[in-house]
Design brief:
Blueprint (H helix, E strand, L loop, with lengths): L4 E5 L3 H13 L6 E6 L3 E3 L5 H5 L8 E3 L9 E5 L2 E5 L4 E4 L4 E3 L2 E4 L3 E3 L7 H4 L1 E2 L3 H17 L12 E5 L3 H21 L7 E6 L10 H13 L2 E5 L2 E6 L2 E5 L7 E4 L2 E4 L3 E3 L2 H4 L9 E2 L12 E3 L4 E2 L1 E2 L4 E2 L4 H19 L13 E6 L3 E6 L2 E4 H18 L4 H6 L3
Parallel strand pairs: 1-2, 1-9, 2-5, 9-21, 11-18, 12-13, 12-18, 13-14, 20-22
Antiparallel strand pairs: 3-4, 6-7, 7-8, 10-19, 15-16, 16-17, 23-24, 25-26, 26-27
This protein binds flavin-adenine dinucleotide (FAD).
């Protein structure tokens, strides 16, 4: 009998864990496994705020795929997925080649969502890949270098506006305030000239999170010199200028800033809708076993999927934690189908949420308990290192881990 082809799209949190689990569960005679990713490395998306601020080398967040998967069990294809043809059961790559599948796992992650805010997409940078964070770091450094180059000092060069106070925005700000003293020293900029502004439409940081923890995070940021503009939405961005104001009404203010960063939202990969799946913001509401509705051989996980939270009756926010748990379920389900068994239902179990505030502080809820400060910071590092354990690469904890 022909061995089925399992094709995994994307080597992020969801895709890589699926591949590693399948190579463990299935034997070489059971199936052919192919992993397709646009780079020959995986990056720790959850760490990207650190290289963006310049507090970590980008290479620390990078893991080569062939160091994680067994090349004799998983065929790695470096390529850009253009779309999936579910009728022909083919993945079409941007270079014109095709890959046939019997089972496909969609794990292509997300892209920044700018909600149609005029000029935001064109004029703001986003934390979305290893190269995007290299660009942010270098842009900030070059801006600091320009502060005095025209004879008189120009504060707009050292003004940084961050749109969004969700986890990505808060964690980036935490790293940035850690980095600013070094930047000031290096580029001879007085600390009081540097302006860091956070604009968030909700009335609190980390909307929806525990009020005591959000208050802690807000106070920490204010104490470290971040101007918080809560309850304000970005209304438009032009090169070097952000216009913002309360969501109701026409009152607006502007800030001249050479660095503008948007962290306010993600949607799923555009390949989802391009491949004909019904989705909201490129996120497919998946069946109980992570399959796409109406497609017995298509699994969708991570930022491309939506899983309903039975408590809030809204989809869970897209996180690495849910992508990883879905990956375990999907690997099990594909192995079950190949062995003629039925699939099992996916149930998300939140292990808690922790956000860093710079290197030594943070907030979070772990096993139902609130944690702050150094305890939260320690816990965040434990969680970050846990991914290497999930990948079954214990040596990477020593090589790339956080301590
Ligand atoms: P990803 O991990 O993004 O992987 C997608 C992969 O697909 C990438 O390798 C990409 O290169 C590849 N790809 C994309 N398009 C193509 C294409 N067309 N062809 C080929 N390959 C392609 N979540 C948490 O749980 N905890 C956190 O603390 C946390 N912190 C975060 C901090 C930051 C700064 C950011 C940006 C996100 C954070 N998240 C966090 C969210 C988390 O990173 C994502 O939810 C998670 O990475 C989603 O996993 P995924 O497998 O769907 O996609």
């Amino acid at each position: 009998m022909k061995r089925p082809n399992i094709v995994i799209l994307g080597a992020g949190f969801g895709g890589l864990i699926t591949a590693v689990n399948l190579q463990k569960t299935l034997s070489a005679g059971d199936a052919n496994i192919t992993l397709i990713n646009k780079h020959d490395y995986h990056y720790q998306t959850t760490w990207l705020h650190e290289p963006a601020a310049g507090t970590m080398k980008p290479e620390q967040a990078r893991i080569y795929i062939n160091d994680v998967v067994n090349p004799s069990r998983v065929k790695f294809v470096k390529g850009i997925v253009d779309r999936v043809d579910t009728t022909a059961k083919q993945v079409l790559l941007a270079d014109g080649s095709t890959v046939e599948y019997d089972y496909v796992v969609f794990a292509l992650g997300g892209i920044p969502e700018t909600f149609g805010i005029p000029g935001l997409k064109e004029n703001a940078m986003t934390i979305s890949s290893l190269n995007s964070v290299r660009k942010i770091k270098e842009h900030i450094e070059y801006s600091f270098a320009q502060y005095k180059t025209n004879g008189s000092a120009d504060r707009s060069y050292v003004t940084i506006v961050v749109g969004g106070a969700g986890f990505t925005g808060i964690e980036f700000l935490g790293e940035l305030v850690n980095r600013v003293p070094e930047l000031c020293k290096q580029y001879d900029v007085p600390r009081e000239a540097v302006r860091i502004v956070n604009i968030e439409a909700a009335p609190t940081v980390l909307p929806g999170f525990d009020p005591e923890l959000t208050t802690y995070a807000q106070k920490w940021l204010e104490r470290n010199g971040v101007e918080m503009k809560l309850g304000n939405g970005i209304k438009g961005v032009e090169p070097g200028v952000v216009t913002f104001g309360p969501l109701q009404g026409d009152t607006t203010e502007t800030i001249e800033a050479n660095t503008i960063l948007w962290t306010g939202g993600v949607s799923g990969s555009p390949i989802v809708e391009k491949s004909g799946f019904e989705a909201v913001r490129n996120r497919v509401m998946v069946e109980a076993d992570n399959r796409a509705p109406g497609h017995d051989n298509v699994f969708i996980i991570g930022d491309c999927s939506a899983v309903m939270d039975p408590v809030s009756n809204r989809p869970y926010p897209p996180t690495a934690q849910i992508a990883t748990q879905q990956a375990h379920n999907v690997a099990k389900n594909i192995a079950a189908l190949i062995n003629g068994k039925s699939t099992s239902k996916f149930t998300y179990e939140s292990k808690g949420t922790v956000a860093s505030l710079g290197h030594n502080d943070g907030i979070g809820i772990v096993m139902g308990k609130k944690i702050f400060g150094r305890n939260a910071s320690f816990m965040k590092k434990v969680i970050d290192n846990k991914h290497f354990i999930e990948l079954k690469k214990y040596g990477l904890v020593l090589k790339k881990g956080k301590f």
